[in-house]
TrEMBL record:
Transmembrane segments: none
Keywords, ordered alphabetically: Autophagy, Glycoprotein
Renumbered residue ranges of the record's region Disordered: 543-575, 697-739
UniProt xrefs under CDD domains: DnaJ, TRX_DnaJ
Organism of derivation: Coregonus suidteri
Signal peptide (residue range): none
Family matches, as SMART domains: DnaJ (SM00271)
Protein name: DnaJ homolog subfamily C member 16
Length: 779
């Protein structure tokens, strides 16, 4: 027994924190911390897979825990041991491995650590619905520290003593605590992204952040502090005190100053600032600095205890003060809640309005709101100051004072000022809210508001009458929702959020937390792959298209392009300086129409032998800007050869070929199809029709045609100059005049092509394409 006891003492004495960390007894805290970080990274079990790495990591952690605490370090230097290195009992036992220490609760259950979880699991256990409905919304007011554990997690036992100590300290400061048992809440663990036990994570503003360092009290405390935004508390000295206190008007918040002797802002104060960040602006004064001497003298601060001052509209005298040696969270919360608003706050959003002027719930809990409608110009200053002076003398808890700027809250002001006998601003109204939808009862205080003694007495009389008879509020209205005057600050908040997110990404990369980074990395690589694939496909598509230089048929006619006569554009720029137009014959009919690929269309110009050269040249100019499309093909049809095919095809578009009622019923002349354009979809078997438009003007189309001429295929549009009737012999025309008329038949083709690309033209479906194997007999 004695030998066993000696062995235990020797084993315990082997835990020399100075030797394990490799530092001397005179090493400073900075040196110890630097060495510890290096060794912790080197021996972390996630990075070091050697046998004994976990044991060595525990020794390093224990050693740092001793040397980083001045009291434990002093005990070790004097007696060679601390509470954590006791060789006998009291929660530590040599178990196979050198210095593999377990908490004493381990011995309550030999095969499970449920006993060690009795401290936390029953009180802090989280469930999925509880996390989503309670923890996430509450994380916008305070951070949460959550431990992921399980029944058979032996490593969880090592961190249990530290976890208990940290929970007791941080919970008293206002930090939310949670424990997730993977065995019972696998869904919640997966939702949090925790794939191993033990894990510790923090939740703030709905965002999850993992703890990556050794489980030491100082590290966990620092982790919680790092979760908080960096700009919660402003350091205040004699140089910037006036700037800080005078910003109450711009921010529309009270300002709180905490005086203390410690150089860093206490965690309790930071947590309080985060909880009330929407209501109060916080500042911190370090009493140990020479730059704060004037502040201490000005406000007569007692340097022996922390002091908290709250300033509202007055920057010379605090509205309230509290001083205590042991500044507890409950005391601070009560102090802030009693000074949550200015004496006369400005209504800047609906949330503030709802809190200042709550909806009536019970008869005995009536709340009245005295509202001043004013402006922010200098001419209103005297009246605004008088209203503030009047509100500062109010002692009734059921009455709240507030004001709005008419320029910034125009809808609200228009609703209240719409009564016949209302006077222009500045004006005072007494409101009582009846429901959350915006219904209010109100009364306008007669005489307006200029800040005179008469105005003050009139308002005082109305408030006394209201206390005796609430029915004097004789008007009702539905108030609109208030404008959010701070909405322009969204960009700044977005920048801060993006900065915090990038910081988290960098932190994850430095700690090789690839499992948690996998969704983000997958998103980045997917975006890069799609972008790279698109560029490669586009490059190969362009190169293969440029290589196609063969004409589609031997009869193809290439009409060289002049300057395009239309300002139309297509999705792809033309890649050739000419338009390739193929004649539609019985040889090319099947490939260019009947078996045309799905999604492709053939634009066919109808002409005669006499008009061929003129119309092809004009056709090329009008459609040139659309030749970049890969789905459009261009052809021409000689109607002298295939007039029967045209008549058969257009029987299915009878509504587009209607004859005016004023034409002679008994004398229908044969239609001249010269200048018609057909857009044929061979796969879906439909056509779109362009009917020629002749304006008779050399300069182009007339304004009278409007969009009707552009439609071409519209059901009721007609050509400007019909060639259905032959020209009269009594009005002979020269050949140049006839050529000019034919040339102008395609003046609106460019606009029609744009509508064809947009898909807004009428479509005429046919049961099947007629054959093109017959040649019309010559006349």
């Amino acid at each position: 027994m004695q030998s066993q006891q000696v062995g235990l003492v020797e084993t315990a004495n082997e835990v020399d924190p100075y030797k394990i960390l490799g530092v001397t007894k005179s090493a400073s805290q900075t040196e110890i911390k630097k060495v510890y970080k290096r060794l912790a990274r080197e021996w972390h079990p996630d990075k070091n897979k050697n046998e004994g790495a976990e044991d060595m990591f525990i020794k390093i952690t224990k050693s740092y825990e001793i040397l980083s605490n001045e009291e434990k370090r002093a005990n070790y230097d004097r007696y060679g041991q601390t509470d954590d290195t006791q060789p006998y009992g009291h929660g530590h036992y040599g178990h196979g491995h050198d210095q593999f220490y377990f908490d004493e609760s381990f011995f309550h259950f030999p095969f499970s650590n449920k006993g060690s979880q009795e401290f936390a699991d029953s009180k802090y256990a989280l469930h999925f619905n509880q996390y989503v409905n309670d923890v996430v919304p509450d994380s916008f007011k305070r951070p949460y520290l959550i431990k992921i554990t399980s029944d058979w997690c032996f490593s969880c036992i090592h961190i249990e003593p530290v976890w208990k100590e940290v929970v007791l300290e941080l919970e008293a400061l206002g930090v939310g605590i949670g424990v997730v048992d993977v065995g019972y809440e696998r869904r919640l663990a997966n939702h949090l992204g925790a794939h191993r036990t033990p894990s510790i994570l923090g939740v703030i503003n709905g965002k999850v952040t993992f703890f990556h360092y050794a489980v030491v009290k100082e590290h966990l405390r620092q982790f919680v502090e790092d979760l908080l935004p960096q700009r919660l508390v402003e350091k205040v000295t004699d140089r910037n005190d006036l700037q800080f206190l005078n910003s109450w008007h711009e921010q529309n918040k009270p300002h709180v100053l905490l005086f203390d002797q410690v150089p860093v802002v206490p965690l309790l104060y930071k947590l309080t600032a985060f909880t009330y960040k929407d209501y109060v602006q916080f500042g911190y004064v370090d009493q140990g600095l020479s730059e704060t001497a004037n502040l201490l003298k000005q406000f007569n601060i007692n340097t022996y205890a922390p002091t908290m001052l709250v300033f509202k509209e007055s920057t010379d005298k605090p509205a309230d003060i509290i001083q205590a040696k042991g500044m507890k969270k409950q005391i601070i919360d009560e102090f802030i809640l009693n000074n949550k608003f200015l004496l006369v706050p400005r209504l800047v959003n609906q949330k503030l309005f709802d809190e200042l002027c709550p909806v009536k719930q019970f008869h005995r809990r009536r709340k009245y709101c005295v509202l001043l409608i004013t402006g922010d110009e200098e001419s209103y200053t005297i009246g605004n100051q008088a209203f503030l002076s009047f509100a500062s003398t109010n002692t009734k808890e059921v009455v709240r004072f507030a004001y709005v700027y008419q320029r910034l809250q125009q809808p609200l002001c228009d609703t209240l000022l719409k009564t016949k006998d209302s006077t222009p601003p500045p004006q005072v109204f007494i409101l009582e809210r009846r429901n959350a939808a915006g219904k209010v009862l109100y009364k306008e205080v007669a005489g307006g508001w200029n800040g005179t003694d008469k105005n003050k007495q009139g308002l005082l009389d109305e408030l006394e009458r209201l206390q005796k008879d609430p029915s004097i509020l004789n008007y009702d209205a539905m108030l609109p929702e208030l404008n959010n005057e701070f909405a322009s600050m969204f960009l700044i908040r977005w920048i801060y959020t993006a900065y915090d997110y990038l910081t988290e990404i960098i932190d994850d990369i430095l700690h090789n937390n690839w499992r948690e980074m996998m969704p983000l990395l997958s998103l980045i690589f997917s975006a890069l792959f799609i972008l790279f694939g698109t560029v490669v496909v586009q490059a190969f598509s362009d190169s293969s298209e440029d290589g196609k230089s063969k004409p589609k048929a031997k009869d193809g006619t290439k009409a060289e392009n002049g300057s395009p006569g239309s300002s139309s554009t297509s999705s792809r720029p033309p890649k050739k300086n000419f338009v390739e137009v193929t004649e539609l014959t019985d040889i090319t009919y099947t490939s260019n129409l009947v078996k045309l690929r799905p999604g492709h269309m053939n634009v066919v110009l109808v002409l005669t032998d006499a008009s061929k050269n003129v119309l092809l040249s004009k056709f090329a100019k009008e459609v040139y800007s659309f030749t970049g499309s890969l789905t459009l093909h261009f052809s021409f049809l000689n109607v002298d050869k295939h007039s029967a095919w045209m008549e058969t095809l257009l029987e299915f578009a009878q509504d587009a070929m209607q004859i005016d009622a004023d034409e002679d019923d008994g004398a229908r002349h044969k239609i001249d199809y010269t200048g018609y354009v057909l857009a044929l979809n061979g796969h879906k078997k439909y056509l779109c029709l362009f009917r020629p438009v002749y304006t008779g003007e050399e300069g182009g189309s007339s304004e009278e045609e409007g969009p009707r001429g552009a439609t071409g295929g519209g059901r009721k549009s007609r050509s400007g100059s019909r060639e259905d009737n032959p020209p009269r012999r009594s009005t002979p025309r020269s050949r140049s005049t006839a050529t000019l008329q034919i040339h102008h038949k395609l003046d609106r083709l460019g606009l029609w092509m744009e509508r064809l690309i947009e898909g807004t033209l009428p479509r005429y479906y046919i049961p099947g394409w007629p054959g093109l194997d017959k040649i019309t007999a010559p006349k």
